Amino acid sequence: MSVKKLFVFTENYEQGGGNRYLVDLVNSVSFKFEEILVFSNKKGIFHTDLSRFNREVNLATLFFITSSLILNKFKHLNSRLLNFYKILFNFLDPILLALNVIFFLLPLIRSKPNKVLVCNGGYPASRACLAMVISSKILCIPVVMSIVSAPLQRRAFAFYYEKIIDLLIWNCVSKVIVNANFIADQLVKLRGLAEVKISVVYNGLENIKPPIFLKKNQKKLVIGCIARVDKEKGVFYLLHAFNVLVSRNPFLKLVIIGSGSAFNQLSTKVDSLGLTDKVSLPGHYSGDITLPLSNFDIYVFPSLWEGFPYSILEAMRSGCAIVSTNVGGIPEAITNGVDGILIEPASSADLVLGLTRLIEDCELRYKLSSNARKKFQENFTLNQMASAVRKIL
User: How many domains does the chain have?
Assistant: First the structure.
């Protein structure tokens, strides 16, 4: 009797929500398979990812060539040279895609999986993921693809090529799993995916009870943010907003936890504004996330662009009063004025207004935080996610 196998593939270069979602998908159906094979580029699966699987998996590296893989190796080059390589790979993309389809046939034939799960970030972000979908279809292996970020619009200079690729991919997959209705709508609108092939499965978290804490001290309020410290996360808008707020409310403190490409620049900006005693930048945090969240009176998430972030759910689970930008799938988790405050992205002024409401109104903070915790329990637990995944995989 043949062993029932699940073949999982991703192309990944950053630690974040994409691989976290991958692990949760696999854990949801791990009992259905006798063997789970996880393949990626070198260092595409991180140690923290491996530690979260609920059973032993066989991890291996696959050989392939994509523009992302090569550009990641040369990201230290100056921007002009990097842009040249990007243009070059735009023309090589069809050739590399075809080569990768051929490369992937052999490992699929050798492993003989019953099902293939391809975990993409955005769409069509990973060309290796697209190649794996096509290879699986050629071998008549059912293939499901997950997409956890909003798709890009078809590029004008490659519109017809990308339209052909879209039609090919959508014909190959049996199902596309996304973690927000926003992403589903964009895939239909921008990339022509049929709604019938889409299943929305929200991120899920363990329904643990957060640490008990009291946030009644009006003379000292902590505003906190846990995010990758990049410009795309809106951290500079948050810092400028805080600079305005602290001039009116000297009892405020801001804590931004995380690391990223803009960390040094943000730290320099804090110094230049004279806020070193008011702003804390502790860097990357790998411990129990409920602990720093328990110290925040207000959780703020100023991101400029998102899919459906885990960080919002973590704040909801911990019963934080939340101020967030209304981007991506965030409005599917937070209803403005009910379980959080939603504002427009890229606006320090809106951040000031939203945060001021919560700074000045303790009862509103309590109401929003209680509602956020309740909504998490009703909609976004790991058990609810697993139940939805089992109907698909």
Answer: 2
**Separation between Cα atoms, residue 181 and residue 187, nearest integer Å:** 10
Backbone angles phi, psi at 21, to 5 degrees: -65, -40
Cα–Cα dist 376/213, whole Å: 19
Residue-number span of the structural domain to which 315 is assigned: 221-379
Q: Does 55 share its domain with 185?
A: yes
Is 0.70 topped by the overall pTM?
Answer: yes
> Is the bond into 124 cis (omega within 30 degrees of 0)?
yes
In a shared domain, residues 81 and 190: yes
Q: How many CB atoms lie within 10 A of CB 41?
A: 21
Q: In this predicted model, what pLDDT tens digit does every residue of 85-96 receive, in sequence order?
A: 666 667 788 899
List the beta bridge partners of residue 325: 343
Query: Closest Cα partner for 234 from 125, 351, 322?
Result: 351
What mean pLDDT do residues 133-153 have? 96
Contact between 297 and 215 (Cβ < 8 Å): yes
Count of CB atoms within 10 A of residue 253's CB?
Answer: 19
Mean pLDDT of the chain: 92
- Residue 278: how many other CB atoms lie within 10 Å: 17
Same domain, 111 and 159: yes
Pairing state of beta strands 35-40 and 143-147?
unpaired
Exposed/middle/buried for residue 269 (C-beta within 10 Å: 0-12, 13-18, 19+): middle
In a domain? residue 250: yes
Whether a cis peptide bond, with omega within 30° of 0, leads into 210 is: no
Say which residue the tokens 């058990």 belong to.
383
Round to whole Å and give the CA distance between 40 and 62.
6
Q: Are 182 and 151 in contact (CB under 8 A)?
A: no
Mean pLDDT computed over 145-173: 93
Q: With 50 as the cut, is the pLDDT of residue 1 above it?
A: no
Whether residue 162 sits in one domain with residue 36: yes
Question: Does 135 share its domain with 248?
Answer: no
Other beta carbons within 10 Å of 25: 24
Given a contact cutoff of 8 angstroms between Cβ atoms, the answer to whether 63 and 34 are in contact is no
Q: Answer whether 33's CB lies under 8 Å from 5's CB.
A: yes
At 371, list the tokens: 């509602």
